[in-house]
Write a structure and sequence with these properties.
326 residues; alpha/beta; D-Maltodextrin-Binding Protein, domain 2; ten-stranded mixed beta sheet; 11 helices; globular
């Protein structure tokens, strides 16, 4: 028996204080062991590259290992579900993209809540996609491509990285805005889609700039447009698709999230560390060389607002494309 009510109250208060002190101490000591950053795609891709260069600098900043772990499948939603159900101790983080967070509820029947199960920490960078054709194709610009598609309904072939992928949605949204029909050709990733465009097996695809640059230098592909709302610094002579089709916009982002309930102090320290990393000119140049725009100001609430805005944009856009969660 605990005796009188005051005695029980003192015990409860003592336990609460001890627990609170323990939690604060754990947050202050973080990280006391290696931290895992889960990447939802295979090694070698754009997201993996950004995660690894960020993890390397976080390791230096905190004096503790930040290890990248690739968990692939279901457009990254397998990785998202895994991290969503990890302990909220900030030893497992998620290097997410727009697909798993802002688009997922409208693409698939997922077993996690992108808003309730995660805490946005910091957005590292954003990048548009580029519409490219093989250099042997007759299309010199988007107007040529659209004219061909209108004269030959369904004959234009468009490669993409799988149904529901960002490259699929970029292309589908463009076809919708341009009012043309094409045959969509799914691949197991962006690289094989680009390879077939270069070989002439398909006509056009939307790709990450980092995947295309080596082939441009070799004269094997031609840029037709970028999917961002305006031209990008890396390709000042390539028009934004929005210049001809106002309102068209497609950008993905790569940001760091933690399971919901992570100590606020740890989230603040992480956000501050990545913001400092993003302010280093050498790091900025490394991202920009991969076609990524650094986003040093998108921390916590600002990042959360981007996620919400993306959801508002993509819900009707995905519905209009006839894609239903399965």
């Amino acid at each position: 028996m605990l005796g009188s009510s005051p005695t029980r109250m003192r015990l409860i208060l003592s336990l609460a204080l001890a627990l609170g002190t323990g939690t604060a101490a754990a947050a202050a000591d973080w990280p006391s062991r290696p931290v895992t950053i889960v990447v939802p795609y295979a090694a070698g891709g754009n997201t993996d590259f950004i995660a690894r260069v960020t993890a390397e600098r976080l390791s230096n900043a905190f004096g503790q290992s930040f290890i990248v772990e690739n968990r692939t499948g279901a457009s990254g939603m397998i990785a998202a579900e895994y991290v969503a159900h990890r302990p909220a101790d900030a030893y497992t983080l998620f290097f997410a993209t727009i697909t798993q967070i802002s688009m997922a509820p409208f693409l698939a029947k997922i077993r996690y809540d992108p808003v309730k199960d995660f805490v946005p920490i910091v957005n590292v960078g954003a990048n548009p996609f580029v519409a490219v054709v093989g250099s042997r194709q007759p299309f010199e610009n988007l107007a040529d491509l659209v004219a061909y598609a209108r004269l030959n309904p369904g004959k234009l072939t468009v490669g993409h990285a799988g149904v529901g992928s960002t490259t699929h949605l970029s292309a589908s949204l463009f076809l919708s805005r341009a009012g043309i029909k094409a045959t969509m050709v799914p691949y197991k990733g962006g690289s094989p889609a680009l390879t077939d465009v270069i070989a002439g097996f398909t006509d056009v695809c939307f790709s990450n700039l980092s995947e295309v640059i080596p082939h441009v230098r070799g004269g094997r592909v031609r840029f037709l447009g970028v999917s961002s709302g305006k031209r990008i610094r890396q390709l000042p002579d390539v028009p934004a698709i929005a210049e001809n089709y106002p309102g068209y916009s497609m950008e993905t982002w790569d940001g760091l999230l933690a399971p919901a309930g992570v100590p606020a102090e740890v989230g603040d320290r992480l956000a501050s560390a990545v913001t400092k990393i993003l302010s280093v000119a050498q790091f900025q140049e490394k991202l920009e060389s991969a076609g990524v725009t650094p986003l040093p100001g998108e921390v916590k609430d600002v990042f959360a607002r981007r996620i919400q805005q993306d959801m508002v944009y993509w819900k009707p856009a995905i519905e209009d494309l006839g894609i239903k969660p399965e």
